[in-house]
């Protein structure tokens, strides 16, 4: 097979890239190791930045997002059993939208298939070859067990943190920054209406907790757990008790309970591999960088990378200009490092980190009080949370 852009991975990065390229008249083939059903159900991110929603709207991918997405104009910081609202829209003129990542994935797959886009699910043994030539290749075994090869002009490595793309780059060509935290997230999806109209980020001596949502009928909740914690140690009752304790308010807080539909543990990790390019291979999204979920940035960074990559590839294929491909990595990394800092900052402020020393604990409280009482501090948080405008990172 021959195509212009071979895309590894049908997560948000790979799918959005294939659609943006299609709008520019550039051909691509996406290969994905999981089944369509699996990627359409995989429960992950839930918060779309202002700019992410704009990208999806401009690309004609927002019919359902416009109908079902829940626009949010603020979040709550909860500590010492009190709420402190950060009015994001009042402070920045921007907002965020609650809309599940798997809904974004479903929407793009439907649009790609309607346009006869080539998406190959359930492939195995994906390998990348000849990346430093102008004819790189992807080989894999398809769902029927047949060996396949795609010859392309460019390969987009959109296969997430554990994919093959980054691992296909010789180690001496990458700078790796890796930071692992002591705590992880235990997340549940519950069949019950949200208990509050906005997200609540809670700092409590027993650990961080987050109240989020997916729809007017479904609540998404998280508690901080030890990095080595096992899901089987957490009965439904233990999860709810912990949530009640951590989300408590002095004036009382009614937390709605309901059947738990999904649960999982996610590690907190900060990771950057740079440059995000090796020859004709371009990394986008989680394959190049990971953030702890506390800033709600991972999916949004994937979208921002792909927006830059689609432009660079347009200039390359339609104008034969490679300047934007040459600056791709540095153009993305400005936003990536801003989000790395913000996600680390939110995690450092909100998590309890069992065993943290008293000095660190007082610093956390000082930062929380400052953010809750200073408009300058709140505005900085709000600006990052809603997402730095593209004009800022395009500068
Ligand atoms: P993905 O989504 O991991 O997609 C990569 C795809 O590549 C496939 N793949 C391969 N395909 C072919 N051959 C191979 N060898 C392959 N190896 C892997 C995989 O099956 C997969 O389909 O990466 P992408 O597209 O870069 O998207 C990144 C986002 O998924 C991720 O950053 C976010 O989910 C992170 N995240 C959040 N981000 C936000 O912006 N806002 C949030 O509120 C937010 N909350 C979260 C999150 C992530 C979480 N977890 C579970 C990691 C909450 C959680 C709990
Ligand atoms: C979610 O709804 O899954 C969610 C929201 C905000 C975060 C992380 C996850 O910071």
Automatic annotation (TrEMBL):
The keyword Transport does not apply. The keyword Flavoprotein applies. It comes from the Bacteria. Keywords: FAD, Flavoprotein, Plasmid. GO terms for molecular function: FAD binding; oxidoreductase activity, acting on paired donors, with incorporation or reduction of molecular oxygen, NAD(P)H as one donor, and incorporation of one atom of oxygen. Residues 2-343 form the FAD-binding domain. Gene3D superfamilies: D-Amino Acid Oxidase, subunit A, domain 2, FAD/NAD(P)-binding domain. Pfam families: FAD_binding_3 (PF01494). This is 4-hydroxybenzoate 3-monooxygenase. The lineage of its organism: Bacteria, Bacillati, Actinomycetota, Actinomycetes, Mycobacteriales.
């Amino acid at each position: 097979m021959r195509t212009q852009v071979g895309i590894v991975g049908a997560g948000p990065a790979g799918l959005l890239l294939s659609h943006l390229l299609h709008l520019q008249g550039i051909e691509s083939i996406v290969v994905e190791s999981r089944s369509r059903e699996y990627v359409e159900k995989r429960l992950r991110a839930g918060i779309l930045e202002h700019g992410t929603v704009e990208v999806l709207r401009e690309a004609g991918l927002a019919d359902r997002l416009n109908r079902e997405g829940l626009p949010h104009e603020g979040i709550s910081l909860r500590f010492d059993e009190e709420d402190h609202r950060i009015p994001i829209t009042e402070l920045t003129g921007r907002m965020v939208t609650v809309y599940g990542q798997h809904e974004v994935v479903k929407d793009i797959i439907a649009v790609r298939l309607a346009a006869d886009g080539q998406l190959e699910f359930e492939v195995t043994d994906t390998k990348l070859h000849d990346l430093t030539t102008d004819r790189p290749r992807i080989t894999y075994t398809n769902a029927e067990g047949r060996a396949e090869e795609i010859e392309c002009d460019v390969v987009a490595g959109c296969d997430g943190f554990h994919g093959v793309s980054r691992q296909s780059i010789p180690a001496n060509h990458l700078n790796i920054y890796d930071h692992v935290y002591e705590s992880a997230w235990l997340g549940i999806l519950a069949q019950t209406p949200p208990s509050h109209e906005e997200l609540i980020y809670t700092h409590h001596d027993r650990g961080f907790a987050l109240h989020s949502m997916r729809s007017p009928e479904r609540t998404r909740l998280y508690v901080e757990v030890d990095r080595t914690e096992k899901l089987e140690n957490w009965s439904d009752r233990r999860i709810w008790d912990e949530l009640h304790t951590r989300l408590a308010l002095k004036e009382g807080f009614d937390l709605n309970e309901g059947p738990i539909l999904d649960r999982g543990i996610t590690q907190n990790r900060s990771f950057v591999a740079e440059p995000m390019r090796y020859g004709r291979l371009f990394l986008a999204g989680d394959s190049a960088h990971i953030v702890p979920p506390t800033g709600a940035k991972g999916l949004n960074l994937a979208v921002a990378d792909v927006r830059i990559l689609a432009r660079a590839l347009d200039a390359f294929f339609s104008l034969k200009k490679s300047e934007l491909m040459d600056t791709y990595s540095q153009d993305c990394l400005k936003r990536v490092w801003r989000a790395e800092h913000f996600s680390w900052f939110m995690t450092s402020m909100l998590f309890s980190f069992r065993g943290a020393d008293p000095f660190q604990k007082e610093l956390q409280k000082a930062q929380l009080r400052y953010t809750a009482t200073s408009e300058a501090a709140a505005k900085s948080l709000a600006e990052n949370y809603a997402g730095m405008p593209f004009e800022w990172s395009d500068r």
